[in-house]
TrEMBL record:
Entry function: One of several proteins that assist in the late maturation steps of the functional core of the 30S ribosomal subunit. Helps release RbfA from mature subunits. May play a role in the assembly of ribosomal proteins into the subunit. Circularly permuted GTPase that catalyzes slow GTP hydrolysis, GTPase activity is stimulated by the 30S ribosomal subunit.
Family of this protein: Belongs to the TRAFAC class YlqF/YawG GTPase family. RsgA subfamily.
Span of domain CP-type G: 93-251
Subcellular locations according to the entry: Cytoplasm
Cofactor binding note of this UniProt entry: Binds 1 zinc ion per subunit.
Protein source organism: Shewanella aestuarii
Gene3D superfamilies: P-loop containing nucleotide triphosphate hydrolases, Probable gtpase engc, domain 3
Listed cofactors: Zn(2+)
Cellular component, GO annotation: cytoplasm
Annotated protein name in UniProt: Small ribosomal subunit biogenesis GTPase RsgA
Keyword Lipid metabolism included in the entry's annotation: no
Length: 348
């Protein structure tokens, strides 16, 4: 790839985005993808190279991975609707969410097969991925240090028969090749997983030393030399795009009932068959969930994991809503955002 002028396809452009752009916009504006976000500028890469754009008013906030249209004065005119979005609770706040990364196609949920192995944690990540509308793939690392790799792999597969699950030694290049099909040109991927499970090892293996010198988007400095800078968005040698934003690593569940329900879809199906519609699935007569547990169709661990995640997300969601309705400052923020938006539309 020519790093100075990648094509839109190489940057991950898809029909979903194309549909949102009019012919007029296509001829007057430039399409770019956000690769970095700072307080005073937003860095995008487009087929014209790299540009620093002015930040936008509140209501059109952008994050890494977003697609934007900008004009010759480096003003963002439009942010395209996202295909997927990862959010998290803002640090130090129980109630505000922060947008982390947009338009990721595949998220690699990394968990090691040693003491870190936890089905509950994998379920939590699966729910987060589904809420973000991103396809999850599970990578179980440190297979070389594990005696019962196949049993653990099977346990993960049982969470979802359609899930792709890989057991690998992240230090073995042969194993890394298993993941290459996710790194094709135009696809955007990201890693999720707790500390020490092997995410950096995987990233380094996929990016490769050689390509770290050449694969990142380069820019020309004032002396005409190419300089390589760290980007949240890295281009892999196979053409894929790796979204390596630090915030991804501390993702937490916030208001993601849908993601949890999708991850535990069989529980909702059993619950539909309970005699009482408000069944708490404990000791009610005619409880289909308790029956499924007795019949070996559902594990108690899974029911408890589901209930725990539902409680957690309900708590986050409720406190968010409560906070918003009570907080006068939030009302003021909305007013000032609307004012800013009106001014923006007037062209100030
Ligand atoms: N034996 C073995 N060691 C591994 C494997 N994957 C990673 N490691 C080692 O585990 C340690 C932690 O790996 P990292 O890649 O730094 O883990 P990380 O997920 O990036 O951790 P953070 O940077 O804290 O988020 C390193 O010493 C790796 O060499 C594996 O599959 N097998
Ligand atoms: Zn029930």
């Amino acid at each position: 790839m020519n790093n100075l002028a990648p094509t839109l396809q190489q940057l991950g452009w898809k029909p979903f985005f194309q549909q949102q752009v009019s012919l007029e916009e296509l001829s007057n504006l430039t399409i770019g993808r956000v690769v970095e976000q700072h307080r005073d500028c937003i860095v995008v890469v487009s087929p014209k190279g790299q540009s620093s754009l002015r930040p936008m008013p509140f209501d059109k906030i952008v994050c890494v991975g977003d697609w934007v249209l900008f004009d010759d004065t480096l003003r963002i005119c439009k942010r395209l609707e996202r295909q997927s979005l990862f959010e998290r609770k803002a640090p130090g706040s129980k109630v505000l969410t922060q947008i982390i990364a947009a338009n990721i196609d595949t998220v690699m949920i990394v968990c090691s097969l040693n003491h870190d192995f936890s089905l509950n944690r994998i379920e939590r990540y699966l729910a987060t991925a589904r809420e973000a509308m991103v396809e999850p793939v599970v990578i179980l690392t440190k297979a070389d240090l594990c005696e019962d790799t196949d049993i653990k792999r099977q346990q993960v597969q049982e969470l979802d028969p359609m899930l792709m699950v890989y057991t690998i030694n992240a230090l073995d290049n042969h194993d890394i090749k298993l993941l290459e099909s996710y790194c094709n040109s135009g696809s955007t991927l990201a890693f999720l997983g707790s500390s020490g499970v092997g995410k950096s090892t995987l990233v380094n293996a996929l990016v490769g030393y050689e390509s770290q010198q050449t694969g990142e988007i380069r820019e020309e400095d004032s002396k005409g030399r190419h300089t390589t800078t760290h980007r949240a968005l890295k281009v892999l040698p196979q053409g894929g795009i790796l979204m390596d934003t630090p915030g991804m690593r501390e993702l937490q569940l916030s208001s993601c009932e849908q993601g949890v329900n999708e991850t535990f879809s069989e529980i909702a199906e059993f619950a539909d068959k309970c005699r009482f519609s408000d069944c708490a699935h404990t000791s009610e007569p005619g409880c289909a969930i308790q029956q499924a547990i007795k019949g070996g169709l559902l594990s108690e661990r899974r029911l408890h994991s589901y209930q725990k995640l539902m409680r957690e997300q309900a708590l986050n969601g409720a406190s968010l809503a409560e906070k918003r309705s009570k907080d006068k400052a939030f009302g003021k923020l909305i007013n000032s955002t609307q004012n800013a938006s009106r001014q923006y539309k007037k062209g100030y």
